[in-house]
Specification:
39% of the residues lie in helices and 13% in strands. The protein has helices spanning 5-10, 31-47, 52-70, 83-91, 110-123, 139-144, 168-178, 239-242, 269-285, 287-307, 328-334, 356-366; strands at residues 77-80, 101-105, 126-130, 150-156, 181-185, 204-208, 220-224, 312-314, 320-322, 340-342, 345-348. The protein binds pyridoxal-5'-phosphate. The site of pyridoxal-5'-phosphate has 13 residues, from α4 and α5.
């Protein structure tokens, strides 16, 4: 089934009392996600353990949908409560040692920065920060910071303050040539821009559920190329590391051989299946169509702000970052519209569930 952009929009809240333009922070969830939560809440209420097989099947469908979206196999996906958990699985089990270098931007979001910083502290490796310029990144500067000691490049695809984007293809090629492990935090791009980790030579990527994937807060996932899975030990360990909750305890237990070994125990079924339902909506609409609509709305907002005399920045993504005037905050609160203070300015970030009227109302209020 193919859905139009209008079909996509119809699957979201309809009252426009408050405008949701902080989707780079937290997006309203889709109707299929909401229905999925209601469905499982109801079945758990009535059926309890009788749901066992069915809910595991639904978690599997979600895993499959995540895999389709990032361009890998379902056995390469593992679920966590957040992006930071997913990154922690990777970086705290990465074989870093004194003298090794981990390279990232100096403006990384803390869920990517802090785990790697801590992994470097614990292992004696060095965290190297490539300099951005006025919240913009230049891929060649990142590449120029690579040394013979660089073991990992761990960057966000789009940076959270301004949406400035690293050329993943270029970095992926260099990483492949030099044997550097390439990790990407895809949180600010996945669901908005087309993506395929294998085509980009990405070894692992991670994201969470609550921004461009229009799903409830509470799910992170890691996609780890199967060629690396046996090199990583599970960071958390439990029944699911080895088998199922029905298996008898066995001291000779061996971990699973795919990414499922990273999931130690029972899962957040409601949140994970809701994520699967939203991704289904995204896949049926087509990421390319969603991207086109987001870029249309953000470009309208960006140029509208410039026409009103604001200094505004937009890097071919949703995020529009503009320098406020004295009364800007008050005027935005009056609509009211959600925005975030990020970098030097205010961040607005339309999704494809927004419409022209939302943008017009913001521009009208700031006139
Ligand atoms: C680049 C990036 N990564 C990750 C996250 C979220 O991390 P977590 O799921 O750990 O809260 C955000 C925003 O909240 C982000 O902008």
């Amino acid at each position: 089934m193919v859905l139009s952009i209008q079909d996509f929009k119809n699957e979201f809240y309809s009252d426009r009392k408050r405008l949701h333009l902080n989707n780079a922070g937290l997006s309203p969830i889709s109707n299929p996600a909401r229905e999925k939560i209601k469905y499982w809440a109801d079945r758990f209420f009535h059926e309890g353990f009788y749901t066992d097989h069915d809910y595991m099947q639904d978690v599997f469908s979600s895993r499959n949908n995540v895999a389709k979206l990032v361009g890998c196999e379902h056995s390469e996906i593992s679920f966590y409560p957040s992006t930071a958990y997913a990154i922690s699985q990777l970086c705290f089990q990465f074989p870093l040692k004194t003298g090794d270098e981990v390279l990232m931007w100096d403006i990384e979001y803390s869920s990517n920065l802090y785990p790697w910083q801590e992994a470097c502290k614990r292992s004696g490796a060095t965290l190297v920060l490539a300099p951005s310029k006025n919240f913009q990144v230049d891929t060649d500067i990142l590449i120029s910071k690579i040394t013979s000691q660089t073991k990992v490049i761990a960057i966000s695809w789009l940076q959270f303050q301004t949406g400035t984007r690293t050329d993943l293809k270029k970095v992926g090629e260099v990483c492949r040539e030099k044997g550097i492990f390439f990790f990407v935090d895809i949180m600010q791009g996945i669901g908005m821009h087309p993506f395929n980790m294998k085509e980009l030579n990405i070894d692992a990527c991670a994201s969470g559920s609550h921004k461009w994937l229009v799903s409830p807060v509470g799910v992170g996932f890691l996609a780890l190329d199967s060629k690396h899975v046996m090199k990583f030990k599970p960071h958390n360990v439990g029944a699911s590391t080895f088998g199922t909750c029905d298996d008898p305890s066995d001291l000779t237990c061996m971990p699973k051989t795919d990414s499922l070994k990273f999931e130690a125990g029972s899962k957040q079924v409601l949140e994970i299946t809701a994520l699967g339902a939203s991704i289904d909506l995204i896949l049926k609409t087509g990421v390319v169509n969603i991207e086109k609509e987001i870029l249309r709305l953000s470009s309208k907002l960006h140029h509208g702000l410039q026409n009103l005399g604001f200094e505004s920045f937009n890097h071919q993504s949703s995020i529009v970052n503009f320098i406020p005037k004295a009364d800007t905050e008050k005027r935005l609160h009056q609509i009211p519209v959600l925005f975030a203070k990020r970098g030097n300015g205010f961040r607005l970030s339309p999704h494809a569930h927004n419409n022209d009227e939302d943008i017009d109302r913001v521009l009208q209020a700031l006139k």
